[in-house]
Amino acid sequence: MLLSNNEGHGKAKRSLALAVSLLLSPVVMQSAQADVLNVTADFDPREVRQGGDNSTTTMTSNAFSKPSTLLKGSHRADFKVGNSFFKNPWVVAPASTDARDGLGSLFNVNACQSCHIKDGRGHAPRDASDRADSMLIRLSILPQNQAHQDLLKQGKTASIAEPNYGGQFQDQSVFGVKPEGRVEVTWKMVDVTFADGEVVELRKPEFALTRLAYGELHPDTKMSPRVAPPMIGLGLLEAIDSKDILGQQDQNDNNNDGISGRANWVVDAKTGDLVLGRFGWKAGQPSLEQQGAGAFNGDMGLTTSLFTSENCTSAQTSCLNAPTGSRQGEPEVSDAILDAVTFYSQNLAVPVRRDADHIDVLKGKALFYEAGCQSCHTPAYKTGASASVDKHLRNQIIYPYTDMLLHDMGEELSDGGHTEFLAEGNEWRTPPLWGIGMAETVNGHTEFLHDGRARNVMEAVLWHGGEAEKSKQLVLQMSKEERKQLVRFLNSL
Questions:
Q1: What's residue 39's pLDDT?
Q2: How far is CA 448 from CA 87, 134, 140, 282, 411, in A?
Q3: In the 8-state DSSP scheme, what is residue 103?
Q4: 3-class secondary structure, 48
Q5: Listing from the earlier edge strand, what are the strands of the sheet with 168-169?
Q6: What is the structure's pLDDT at 33?
Q7: Predicted confidence band at 230 (pLDDT cuts at 50, 70, 90)?
Q8: CA distance linking residue 171 with residue 211, whole number of Å
Q9: Residue among 487, 416, 409 nearest 455 (CA)
Q10: What one-character-per-residue DSSP string does 286-331 give?
């Protein structure tokens, strides 16, 4: 049974006896694999190895950069090749290093690692002097005509790009081309009060695009800030059978729990078909190959066989006329390089959990279930066994704590109406929680959510709204000790 709130309708105090009983109570996993995995709030030794047999025991700042444990022989060499293209910078064309030239002309960073620092998460600018090096701003406008509406209705485009600046704001450029402008952020403070009177000061970002080089923004422009997420376990998420993700949908909230997750259906750049979206903050990419190709194009201004056009708008003539790294019509990023980076992205191991059997961690786990957090953060899956999944990623029991679906997170977390295929402005894919407790060790900060506003896991919880409002209200009713236990559980992941 689902853990329910004590009959006092959200009382802040619960007895130790109740907490212990919760630890021993089975929890129904809201997943198509519930009968296989039988997730409970008790200690599960399997859950220590969150990434299954591919988990890493490294607990240093390199914890997110280790290969899948089951990788053997030549595959380890392939991982190292992909790492080199992920980590090392691309350069301006023409250059003697023709395997890595073609950067820009407009771009955000010159290497994948510049966003995904140590294969971990980025952060928003912290003040006026800080650059937006590990986050980006998506841009879109409302449909202006029937043609726009048809493109969106037919799923042929994720959104309608801003006419002068395109679908992504780029604040760096090569020599002779002006950068599009600068990303600036100011922070507004918001107080939230727990039932016991403790006040937490949250921060809310307000983003602005300044020093615009290519004219004014369209008056209907929508901005969506996106902090770079960690790279761990992505191949395992890709290996989950589609039916096990789609089986969790409840678009009409037929079970009346207030949760109505739905899949995003996105364009496969190779086939033009609409397929299940899995990756990105709004599940806007169907595969790691396409996610990587999109990042090469949008973040670094590099063409691939999937995205063959330079990332310039018609208003940016200096960008259009700048030299490229393309030779004989070939893309700047060869298929071999794209394959290597994709393989690397598929095989970054998930760290094992710490103190998973500690009594306070287990109490926090029980509170996590009692608040209903597992309704979106689905704990466990068994990866697929099809030939399309690499052998070492098959049949792995993993604990990512995500349903991979879109959820309404409320107006406070909305990005102002920016859409991405089916995803509306207030809808976000449930982010995986595995590795969250290693964020500070790897990246030196604990800034979470799509725009980096939360400075720790509790602040992230307190920004939840929409479908998660009920869960947040239950957390607000918890005692200070219970809140510490909940945080300790999350930081054990």
A1: 64
A2: 23, 13, 24, 15, 18
A3: -
A4: helix
A5: 168-169, 135-140, 222-227
A6: 56
A7: very high
A8: 10
A9: 487
A10: SSHHHHHHHHHHHHH----SSS-S-S--TT-HHHHHS--S-BTTB-
- The residues facing 199 across adjacent strands are 193
For the residues of 334-349, what is the DSSP string, one character each? -HHHHHHHHHHHHTBP
279 bridge partner residues? 285
Alpha-carbon distance of 180 to 391, in angstroms, equals 44
> What are the Cα distances from residue 207, in Å, to 9, 74, 137, 161, 226?
39, 46, 9, 18, 11
Q: For residue range 470-490, list pLDDT tens digits in order.
A: 999 999 999 999 999 999 999
Pull the structure tokens for residue 50: 């969150």
Task: Evaluate if residue 257 carries a pLDDT over 60.
Answer: yes
**What distance in Å separates the CA atoms of residue 452 and residue 124, rounded to the nearest whole number?**
5
Specify burial of residue 143 (Cβ count, 10 A radius: 0-12, 13-18, 19+). middle
- Please state at what angle helix 359-370 crosses helix 480-492, rounded to 10 degrees: 100
d(CA 300, CA 173): 10
390-409 pLDDT, tens digit each = 999 999 999 999 999 999 99
Residue range 263-291: mean pLDDT, rounded: 97
Question: Per residue in 416-432, pLDDT tens?
Answer: 889 999 999 999 999 99
In the 8-state DSSP scheme, what is residue 427?
Answer: E
How big, in percent rounded to 5, are the helix, strand and coil portions of the chain?
Answer: 30, 15, 55
- Please identify which residue in the block is written with the tokens 């063959």: 308
Taking residues 181-206, report their average pLDDT.
97
